[in-house]
Amino acid sequence: MKFLLVLLFCVLQVSAADSLQVTDVFARATNGKNGAVFMTLKNEGNRMHKLISAKVSDPIAEKCELHTHVVEGNTYRMRKIPSIEVPAGSQVQLKPGGLHVMLMGLKKHLVQGQTFDLTLVFGSGANVNVEVPIKSAGAMSASCGCQS
Ligand SMILES: [Cu+2]
Questions:
Q1: Cβ(24)–Cβ(38) below 8 Å
Q2: Backbone angles phi, psi at 139, to 5 degrees
Q3: Mean pLDDT, the chain, as a whole number?
Q4: Would you say 71 and 21 are in contact if contact means Cβ atoms under 8 Å apart?
Q5: Percent of the chain at pLDDT exceeding 70
Q6: Residue 11 Cα, ligand 1 centroid: separation in angstroms?
Q7: Alpha carbon of 72 to ligand 1 centroid (Å)
Q8: Does the pLDDT value for residue 120 go beyond 90?
Q9: Is the separation of the CB atoms in 144 and 137 below 8 Å?
Q10: Which pLDDT score, from 0 to 100, does residue 113 have?
Q11: Residues 19, 45: contact at Cβ < 8 Å?
C-alpha cells in the first residue's frame, strides 16, 4: 500500500510538464517598446497542456501577454488571448504572423546575439524556464506587425 502511494506521487510529479517539449525558441531584435517571442510547443503526453501566461525578469519588460494575429480587412492585427492550447500528441508553433508571446513595455533593447530568460506558466501549475536567444529583426518572415 505504501509502495502504491509512493508510485502514485511520482506519476503526479512527472505528469506536469515532462511530456511537453519547448524548442526553437527565439525573439527578434528590436529597439521598439514591444517585442515578441516565438517557439514550438510539442505535447508528447496524453492530455492537453495549456500555456496560460509567461514571465520575464523585471529588467527586460513590464509584462508578457499571449497574442495571436487576426486578419481585419487587409491588415494583420494582434489580439490578446487567454491561453494557448497544445492538445495531446500534437504541436503548436508560435511564429511571426501567428501566435506569440508578447513582451510589453521593453525596458531595454533586444540586441541580436544576446539572450534572456523566459518562464512559461501552464494551466497545470507547471513552470518551464527557457533561455531565449535574440535573432535578427527580420528572422523568419518579415510580415509581422509585432514591432512597436
Ligand atoms: Cu503581439
A1: yes
A2: -55, 130
A3: 86
A4: no
A5: 82
A6: 36
A7: 15
A8: yes
A9: no
A10: 97
A11: yes
Ligand 1 centroid–CA 16 distance in Å is: 27
pLDDT tens column, 132-144: 999 998 876 544 4
Confidence band for 127, pLDDT divided at 50, 70 and 90: very high
Residue type, 36: A
Contact criterion met (CB below 8 Å) for 137 and 31: no
Domain ranges of the chain: 18-134
pTM of the predicted model as reported, rounded to 2 decimal places: 0.82
Tell me, in angstroms, the distance from the centre of ligand 1 to residue 117's CA.
Answer: 18
Q: Is the predicted pLDDT of residue 146 greater than 60, yes or no?
A: no
Taken in order 131, 132, 135, 139, the sign of the CA dihedral is positive
CATH fold, domain 18-134, is Immunoglobulin-like (2.60.40)
Residue 97 has which C-alpha cell? 504572423
Residue 126 CA to ligand 1 center (angstroms) comes to: 23
- Distance (angstroms) between ligand 1 centre and the Cα of 88 equals 26
Ligand 1 center from residue 20 Cα (angstroms): 23
